[in-house]
Design brief:
The protein is α/β, with parallel strands linked by helices. It contains eleven helices and 13 strands. It has a domain of 224 residues: NAD(P)-binding Rossmann-like Domain (Rossmann fold). Strands 3-2-1-4-5-6-11 form a seven-stranded parallel β-sheet, sandwiched between helices. It has a two-stranded parallel ribbon with strand order 7-10.
């Protein structure tokens, strides 16, 4: 099949492109290579595709609706996997307009391009566990209300879900949204805690521990995510259907265990500086993945200790430290 993949130079997008190519699909990757974090890392990801048949890349801004529509129509994909977005909870407090452009206008551009191109059987797009906001009850179910996002980033991802639901209702677009829960692994994002902690520990610098460490996260290893994402993208659900799934490790771990895994993997102890909770953050995430298990046999298998070791090994090799 031919897959139009946005965010292909990003963390999940890069791994998704690799997995799709391994399955024999043709992939047209789209990314704007912005400087939210070091563009050299994004370029290095793309360099991994050098010489691989079946992969092509176009640099573009998803908010450029006319160009998105033109390139998508020319490529004539069978499926669209839309992972491109402005990520980061905390950065949304500093640069909110970037989220309106990338996450709102960008998502709408993709929806419009798919609607007018025709012949696309399935659009799979990225949402986020952030849509759940601060919750006392766990695990988080797709049936739970999501009316109080804790950050602008979360609000834009929830808006994407609503736009997609509307386009399914109005135009019969078949879509699946995936609420990702703290995805980590090799080639990850430098703004994420596991990267920041690893970098600081290896440099002998203290780490910042927010909410004094009283947080839990449902960490999800990248290979577990991508294996199921590809199967969903290859599927052709009931025409006009819009579905949303949680995709998480379904095994929340306290921040202390997360830090301990990094200490073990690096062979170094962390000096911890305690800070209060940051605006926009939440104390716990926990995915109910029963729907994804029922429909796609989703069964995450990578323990945090194994996944963190893989990341640290990659980090040492990439930076030669």
């Amino acid at each position: 099949m031919k897959i139009f993949l946005t965010g292909s130079a990003g963390f999940i997008g890069f791994h998704s492109a690799q997995a799709l190519l391994a399955r024999g699909h043709r992939v047209l990757g789209i990314d704007n290579l912005n400087d939210y974090y070091d563009p050299a890392l994004k370029t290095a990801r793309l360099d991994q595709f050098a010489g691989q048949s079946g992969f092509a890349f176009e640099k573009m801004d998803l908010a450029d609706a006319d160009r998105v529509a033109s390139v998508l129509k020319s490529f004539a994909p069978d499926r669209v996997v839309h992972l491109g977005a402005q990520a980061g909870v905390r950065y949304s407090l500093e640069n909110p307009l970037a989220y309106a452009r990338s996450n709102l206008m960008g998502h709408l551009s993709v929806l419009e391009a798919v609607r007018h191109a025709g012949g696309i059987d399935h659009l799979v797009y990225a949402s986020s566990s952030s849509v759940y906001g601060e919750r006392n009850q766990a695990p988080f179910s797709e049936r739970d209300p999501v009316e109080h996002p804790a950050s602008l980033y979360a609000a834009t991802k929830r808006a994407d879900e609503l736009m997609s639901a509307t386009y399914s209702n109005l135009y019969g677009l078949t879509q699946t949204g995936l609420r990702f829960f703290t995805v980590y692994g090799p080639w990850g994002r430098p703004d994420m805690a596991y990267w920041l902690f690893t970098e600081a520990i290896l440099k002998g610098q203290p780490i910042k521990v927010f909410n004094e460490g009283r947080m839990e996260r449902d960490f999800t290893y990248i290979d577990d995510v991508v294996e199921t994402l590809v199967r969903i993208a290859e599927d052709a659900p009931q025409s006009g259907q819009h579905r949303v799934y949680n995709i998480g490790g379904s095994d929340p771990r306290p921040l202390s265990a997360f830090i301990a895994a990094i200490e073990t993997a690096t062979g170094k102890s962390a000096e911890k500086l305690m800070f209060p909770m940051q605006p926009g953050d939440v104390t716990k995430t926990c995915a109910d993945v029963s729907a994804l298990e029922r429909d796609y046999g989703y069964a995450p298998t990578t323990r945090i200790e194994t996944g963190i070791q893989a990341f640290v090994d990659w980090y040492r090799a990439y930076y030669r430290v």
